[in-house]
Amino acid sequence: MNGHGRMKLPAPNALVGGTLIAILLATAGTGALWTPYDPLKLSFREKLVAPGALHWLGTDEFGRDVLSRLMAGAATSVWISILTVTLAVVMGTTIGLFSGYMRGWTDRIIMAFNDALLAFPGILLALGLLAVLGANKYGIIVALGIAYTPSVARVVRGTVLSLREREFIAASRVMGNGEGFTMLRHILPNCIAPLTVLATSMFGYVLLAESALSFLGLGVPPPAPTWGNMLAGSRPYIDQAVWLGIFPGLCISLTLLGINLLGDALRDKLDPRMRGAR
Amino acid sequence: MSTKAFSSEVGTGSREENASNKATAPLLDVADLTLKLGASGRTLVNAVSFQVFPGEIVGIVGESGSGKTLAARAVMGFIPPAVRLTGGTIRFEGQDVMAMSGKDLRAMRGSRVGMVFQEPMTSLNPSMLIGRQLDEGLELHRKLDSGQRKALVLDMLRRVGIRDPEGALESYPHQFSGGMRQRIMLASVMLLKPALLLADEPTTALDAVVQRDVMELMVELTQANDTAVLLISHDLGMVARYCSRIVVMCQGDVVEQGTAEDILARPQHPYTRKLLAAMPQRLPARFLPEGGTPIVAVRDLVVDYPGRQGFFRKSAPKRALHGVSIDVKPGEVVAVVGGSGSGKTTLGQSIAGLVRPAGGEILFNGKPIAKSDTAYWDYRLNCQMVFQDPYSSLDPRMTIQQLVGEPLRLVEAMSAAQKKARVAEVLTEVGLGDGFGQRYPHELSGGQRQRVAIARAIVRRPSFVIADEPVSALDVTVRAQVLELFDELQKKHGFSCLFISHDLGVVEQVADRVIVMHEGRIVEEGPRDAIFDDPQHDYTRKLLSAVPGLESTGDGGVRLFWRRGEGEASA
User: Fold this and answer.
1) Percentage with pLDDT > 70 across chain A
2) Residue B387 is nearest to which of A171, A190, A275, comparing CB atoms?
3) What pLDDT does residue A62 have?
4) In chain B, residues 373-402 whose CB comes closer than 8 Å to chain A
5) Does residue A73 belong to any structural domain of this protein?
6) How far apart are CA A74 and CA A68, in angstroms?
7) What local confidence, expressed as pLDDT, does residue B424 receive?
């Protein structure tokens, strides 16, 4: 509570995280419209060129410019991750909220089904779904979205169960508020803090899962670049062209770092109890 | 077990030495103790001095933030890492505690100074057998073989009133009630026959009746072993009952200390007077018109809690209320009192519609609320509740204005401007004027939060309010203010009230009529003065024996008197 002057400056994690994410979004935005070279253009004379003045981040085994591919890939990867996380959060929250609030048999049945899904490794579930949905951008989003829904549902249900027992929920019922209103007005907003943390860490998982799927050949079909398939494709050349793996890996790491920092800052900001606490 | 057996271990400053010059050598001598918070340098305990002589019971009284717990814990060398000792000395048996090595401190703790904590639910290790936990201290500090230790433990468990000591050795803490756990805690501390017992709010978490039993046991055990007690409490009445001397602390300072009699009858410091004035007192009985339809009538209410659901079978439901009937007349404050497990909270919750009764009915203005939707809705809008814990009854994500305004959402007859004006009006009524509307609950103190909860309950101008232990989570002086506010609002708006409490002192102050509950049944019911002056049922007498009666002596002083309990009536 001391030092109102300091509160004007954003917290350091918000600053660093925000900067990283701003750079990412700018890159993704630019990459969707313009890249230094055509990311798909093959040039066998220039294959595996080390980073230099002409190709800042070097070229890959087909002579494609790595920087251009990273920029184009950013747009695809970020877009896939955002949509997937949104899908999983929306579905998981709905299920968790409903299940936790209703309790009893409704809860047991939903959670039994949920836990059965949770028992599959997320990537395996996504693979199965992709086989049905087809390996393209939207197939990946739906498959990964469904695969990550159960863990969101679990977290939300747990939070709801503990919130339900708080006296302000009883107070809401005594006021005469309906169940739906109580859920949306009192329970949902209080789930935001754990959800923010979960969503940010999930963003990272999705980015990695997308890479893994691409690696298995079930991701965004080549030659379209994503960070995942670039990383996967770099593997055979790790001893000759180390930059092929380093730059996509660095992009993924920095993005995750930025998102996690921003997520923490966001959680503090969204929770009135944390306001003015630092 | 004999005094000799351990006096050889403690070396200098042993009991014999102290006994010979009792008048001059205090067991514990705290002088100018000053503790500051590391980072900000805020003073938490300011030049506090007090002494405890062997075998004496000294009480430290103060509200939260008074530094009483910090000061007492410093005696054992327990100071939180963020807190620094900046001045003063603590001498125990002539030795400077602050200068002691870790080894000496450990030898002193448990063996020479014992401690009983407030929360019996968390102060015993839940994953350790009782027998093992009691044995731990003996094993550490006494050179006895396991057979001798077991005999001592069993003897002590018997003395603290555990029914089956042999069985208790093989039990876990969760198998005992709060009162029993506190007895076990006391047993584990007294096993080592310490010279000083630090008791930090030892009975605050317990029921009034259990509280008295545990305190009495503590006094008896410590007297038998000539152990001095430093009793830390917010409850001036309790401290006055058991202590010979009282130290009053307020915001880190000792404002007054003296004999219990002097403090009570001739308080010198304004803060002491404030504390005494905050003790609930009976006001003259109000006149309420006889007869008339009760605003709320409860008929033969039965509530069952479902049994534990196993994988294949359900255990039998537990009956919490066995057919309870009560009437609340317009403008009347009816208090429901009883210990934990008496069903008083269940009664309040089922009347508020939070728990579905298994039988019986509730009538509002003579109409059964379960019969029609209009009757139910009429009741719903007119019945409000104030909860016990102001930290959990307010949604942390809403501002005070939103919280207080929320009940008005369902009032169709009011315009947005009228609602806003009503919220402002009610906030002023509860003493939270401008500037509070935009704040969040965590920015408010406990007393302010409870004011918000009361504002929320009365904003719709209900005709019936259920208050479930509305002041039991608050500090003594804050409690008095909130009770006063509640009383004022009740008189102003004339709502009827069902006031649920375990604290008879509070009940004596606010109630017109008292209902005493025990194990899901009403055992006695009547006008307040009749219940307090001429209780008929044994359980009522037992409850009453746990709280002091109060008589003002003028000049800010009071005289306490204690009612006789069950079985002591003829003495």
Assistant:
1) 93
2) A171
3) 83
4) 377, 380-381, 383-385, 387-389, 392-397
5) no
6) 10
7) 93
**Structure tokens given for B10:** 């403690």
- The CATH number covering residue A240 comes to 1.10.3720.10
Which of A173, A273, A276 is the closest to B396 by Cβ?
Answer: A273
Length of chain A: 278
Mark yes or no for CB contact B354/A273 under 8 Å: no
* A277 assigned to some structural domain: no
Give the residue numbers spanning the domain of A236.
79-272
Note whether residue A259 is domain-resident: yes
CB-based contacts of A26: which residues, under 8 Å, 6+ apart? Answer: none
Residue A222 lies in a domain: yes
Level-2 CATH architecture, domain B3-278: 3-Layer(aba) Sandwich (3.40)
Question: What's the whole-number average pLDDT of chain A?
Answer: 84
How many helices (H) and strands (E) are present in chain B, helices listed first? 21, 22
Question: Does residue A175 sit at the B interface (CB-CB below 8 Å)?
Answer: yes
User: Residue A2: its chain B contacts at CB < 8 A?
Assistant: 40
Q: Return the minimum-mean-pLDDT range out of B328-332, B409-413, B463-467.
A: B409-413
What is the mean predicted confidence (pLDDT) over B498-526? Answer: 91
| Distance, CA of B139 to CA of B145 (rounded, Å) | 8
State the average pLDDT for chain B.
Answer: 85
Q: Which residues of A124-159 are buried (b: 16+ CB within 10 A; e: fewer)?
A: ebbbebbeebebebebbbbbbbbbbbbbbbbbbbeb
Put simply, the answer to whether A174 touches B352 (Cβ < 8 Å) is: yes
**B388 contacts on A by Cβ (under 8 Å):** 167
Indicate the CATH number for domain B296-562.
3.40.50.300
Reported as a single tens digit per residue, the pLDDT across B319-334 is: 889 999 999 999 899 9
Q: Is B384 within 8 Å of A174 when comparing Cβ atoms? A: yes
Chain B residue whose CA is closest to A169: B393
Q: Which residues touch B203 (CB under 8 Å, ≥6 apart)?
A: B182, B210, B211, B214, B215, B238
Closest residue of A to B460, CA-based? Answer: A175
Residues of B in contact with A168 (CB under 8 A): 392-395
Strand partners, B197: B114, B229
**pLDDT tens across B56-97, in order?**
999 999 888 888 888 888 888 888 888 888 888 999 988 888
Total domains in the fold of chain A: 1
Reported as a single tens digit per residue, the pLDDT across B90-101 is 999 888 888 888
Q: What is the pLDDT of residues A73-125, one digit of tens each?
A: 888 888 888 899 999 999 999 999 999 988 888 889 999 999 998 888 888 88
DSSP per-residue string spanning A25-56: HHHHHHHHH--SS-TT---GGGTTPPS-SSST
Domains B3-278 and B296-562 share a fold: yes
B97: DSSP letter: G
User: Which residues on B lie below 8 Å from A173 (Cβ)?
Assistant: 353-354
The residue count for chain B: 571
Nearest chain B alpha carbon to A168: B393
**What pLDDT is attached to residue B310?**
57
Specify the pTM: 0.80
pLDDT at B196: 93
- Measured in whole angstroms, the distance separating CA B327 from the mean position of its chain's CA atoms is 29
pLDDT tens, position by position, A10-55: 678 888 888 988 898 888 888 888 888 888 888 777 777 778 778 7
For residue B562, report the phi and psi dihedrals to the nearest 5 degrees: -115, 130
User: Where do the domains of chain B lie?
Assistant: 3-278, 296-562
